[in-house]
Design brief:
42% of the residues lie in helices and 13% in strands. It is of the alpha/beta class. The protein has a single domain (2-250), classed as Glycoside hydrolase/deacetylase (TIM Barrel, Alpha-Beta Barrel). The strands form two sheets. Strands 1, 2, 3, 6, 7 and 8 form a six-stranded parallel sheet that branches. The structure holds zinc ion. The site of zinc ion has 6 residues, from strand 1. Residues 52-53, 103, 107, 143, 203 line the site of zinc ion.
């Protein structure tokens, strides 16, 4: 009996772990295709430009300069621990018309964090953004795209909408160049896309953001030359209902290049 009870407890524990793990598969491309709202699929005439992991001591200011030159606004998913060190950069983002959003306090995988850490980090980051920037964030993107059940609940408790991405440039590696970033993005560079890039190297190879910075004008030009506007998630009109935005209407529409 003791063995059977122990087995049952183990099964329940495994089930609980699985229930928490299940949403984490949203980081997988195939799954995100079935959850376009979560992936950030939006207006077919618009591409959402997003940057994660900042503010960065060196990179972020340069991105803000280039975005200004391009006349382009973006959404920055901030880490609370970075924001705490560099509040002036976040204030500059908001003053320039960019959108600031929540990436978490630390860059922790939601599946590996101790219970309670992720929701606490989300709430703490929301409060800091409000204190520093005077705005209330709307979006939450979990580090690594690993949206745990606890992270989802924590985001909702703060009134945040979780959003991932539909295209990335794999710009966090030391081997990334502007050419590889563009080539990686290009198959998914279409109307309604949400692009994941990084203005920070706090979780990437040192200086990895330089290739992203150098690629940025070409990325924006590629979208615009395809007739697509580029801007923050607030202008992306992510549709509230999955069934009204079927997958087939999103992939391959308005392909660029
Ligand atoms: Zn990140």
């Amino acid at each position: 009996m003791a063995t059977r009870a122990a087995a049952r407890i183990a099964a329940v524990a495994a089930g609980a772990a699985f229930a928490n793990a299940l949403p984490a598969v949203t980081c997988l491309r195939a799954v995100r295709r079935w959850t376009p709202r979560l992936a950030g699929r939006g207006d077919p005439g618009h591409v959402a430009l997003t940057f994660d992991d900042g503010p960065d001591a060196t990179g972020t200011a340069l991105f803000l300069d280039v975005l200004d030159d391009l006349g382009c606004r973006a959404t920055f998913f901030l880490l609370g621990d970075q924001l705490r060190r560099r509040p002036a950069l976040a204030r500059r983002m908001v003053a320039a018309g960019h959108e600031v959003a929540v990436h978490g306090w630390l860059h922790q995988n939601g599946l590996l964090a101790r219970p309670g850490r992720v929701p606490a980090g989300i709430a703490r980051t929301v409060r800091l953004i409000e204190d520093v920037c005077g705005v209330r964030p709307v979006w939450y993107r979990p580090p690594h795209g690993a949206l745990s059940a606890e992270g989802l609940a924590g985001a909702r408790a703060c009134g945040l909408r979780p959003v991932l991405w539909t295209a990335w440039g794999k710009d966090w590696t030391g081997r990334a160049t502007p050419a590889t970033i563009l080539a990686t993005l290009r198959p998914d560079l279409a109307g309604g896309a949400t692009l994941l890039l990084h203005d920070s190297d706090v979780t990437a190879a040192p200086g990895a953001w330089q290739a992203t910075l150098d690629a940025l004008p070409a990325i924006v030009r590629a979208c615009r030359s395809g007739g697509l506007a580029v801007g923050p998630l607030r202008d992306h009109r992510i549709h509230p209902r999955l069934r009204r935005l079927p997958d087939t209407s999103m992939l391959g529409r308005n392909p660029v290049g």
